[in-house]
Specification:
heterodimer; A: alpha+beta; Immunoglobulin-like; B: 193 residues; alpha+beta; Butyryl-CoA Dehydrogenase, subunit A, domain 3; 6 strands; 54% helix; 18% strand; elongated
Chain lengths: 184, 193
């Protein structure tokens, strides 16, 4: 009976010691790799701009083309290009933000993505954002910018939902852009 | 009828079979799963198999793999010991087998739950990441070297059916220990540690 007890004790010790010691020996030249495999480091670098091959990581979208304004409906549309610098395909589920007058910081309206857009890794996709000037915005254009064909605005409080991850950017991240003055 | 009931330790038999079943099941189905975003990142955790899934890529941490192997071997030894004991519960060495086998599934479950709790507390303290054990939560993720951007992720987590199966296996093994008093009729039977 003592032999069985001894055998069971030895089995218990061997079960615990052999795999751990074996793994330690396998990684004795790279103990960090025992806890952080290189694949994780490479992926984190690619995602957050640590020198990955696919770019610097998070980048704000850039506005392309001229904004369009429909006088009848009071709606406007803006187009942005977004380069997917992530090493994975992504889907932009939503994008929304407030349009503010760059000079007076007056909120002119809000804008949102008209439909979800899927962009493959490394590719650039076009996002069409639509919005509507508020009545107060129209008055602001008439009162503060009556002689300007284009008005400088910023897209503030930009919120983007990329594959379930919400990214909130400061207004400075988007920079200034020009929109046609509906009161001109 | 009574002799059939006490000839074998049926709880031990069921516990041993369930323990071995838990190992097989846990290789495929995690005990606990954490999903980040729209299945962007998944953490599949169990004492038998733990990996990080990033879309189609799966990462395994070597040290965790070593602990997984320890758990697999421990549960295999426990299951086999419980099966052998259950079929011959009145042999003099059977109580050693019972003592060796019945606690391991319970300890495995306990260590797993404690490990999860400690990990989530560490993530909360060090990374300010609020990882739920069950249910969903949003958490703000710090982005190194980037300012002016706040990144919020939806984290969904929950225990899977394989975890509850492991609890059943642990319960059956404990029941086998309690039932042993009825099965072991020999007065010279040794006390199980």
């Amino acid at each position: 009976m003592d032999k069985i007890r001894l055998l069971l004790t030895l089995i218990t010790i061997a079960i615990v010691v052999i795999p751990i010691v074996g793994m330690l020996l396998a990684y004795q030249d790279n103990l960090l790799g025992l806890f952080v495999p290189p694949e994780i480091t490479e992926t984190a670098d690619a995602l957050f701009g640590g020198g990955g091959d696919n770019g610097p990581g998070l980048e704000p979208p850039t506005m392309v083309g001229e904004p369009e304004y429909d006088e009848e409906t009071g709606t406007f549309s803006l187009s942005f290009e977004y380069t997917n610098s992530f090493p994975i395909d992504i889907t932009i589920n939503s994008l929304s933000g407030n349009i503010k007058c760059a000079e007076h910081h007056f909120t002119l309206g809000n804008a949102s993505l008209n439909e979800a857009v899927s962009i493959d890794a490394g590719e650039t996709g076009t996002l069409t954002v639509i919005g509507k000037w508020t009545d107060a915005a129209k008055r602001h254009f008439q009162n503060e910018h009556p002689d300007e064909e284009f008005v400088d605005v910023v897209l503030a409080d930009l919120a983007v939902d990329i594959s379930g991850i919400q990214i909130q950017m400061d207004e400075n991240e988007m920079g200034e852009m020009q929109v046609p003055n509906p009161a001109y | 009828m009574n002799s059939i009931l006490t000839k074998f330790n049926w709880f031990g038999l069921a516990g041993g079979v369930t323990t071995l079943l838990v190992i097989a099941v846990s290789l495929v189905y995690p005990w606990w799963q954490l999903t980040v975003g729209d299945d962007l990142l998944t953490v599949n955790a169990s004492p038998v198999n733990m990996n990080l899934g990033f879309l189609d890529t799966s990462f395994t941490i070597p040290f965790i793999l070593a602990l997984n192997i320890v758990s697999i071997l421990t549960l295999v030894a426990s299951g086999i010991a419980m099966l052998i004991y259950s079929l011959i519960p009145r042999k003099s060495y059977s109580e050693h087998l019972l003592g060796f086998g019945y606690k391991k599934p319970l300890f495995t479950v306990l260590f797993f739950v404690i490990g999860l709790l400690v990990t989530t507390v560490i993530c909360q303290a060090v990374l300010s990441l609020n990882i739920p054990l069950m249910g969903s939560a949003t958490s703000t993720v710090p982005i190194p070297f980037v300012s002016g951007i706040t990144l919020t992720v939806l984290l969904s987590a929950g225990f899977q059916w394989s975890f509850w199966l492991a609890i059943v296996a642990a319960g059956l093994c404990i029941a086998a220990r309690l039932y042993h008093k009825k099965v072991a009729s020999t007065p010279s039977a040794m006390t199980v540690k």
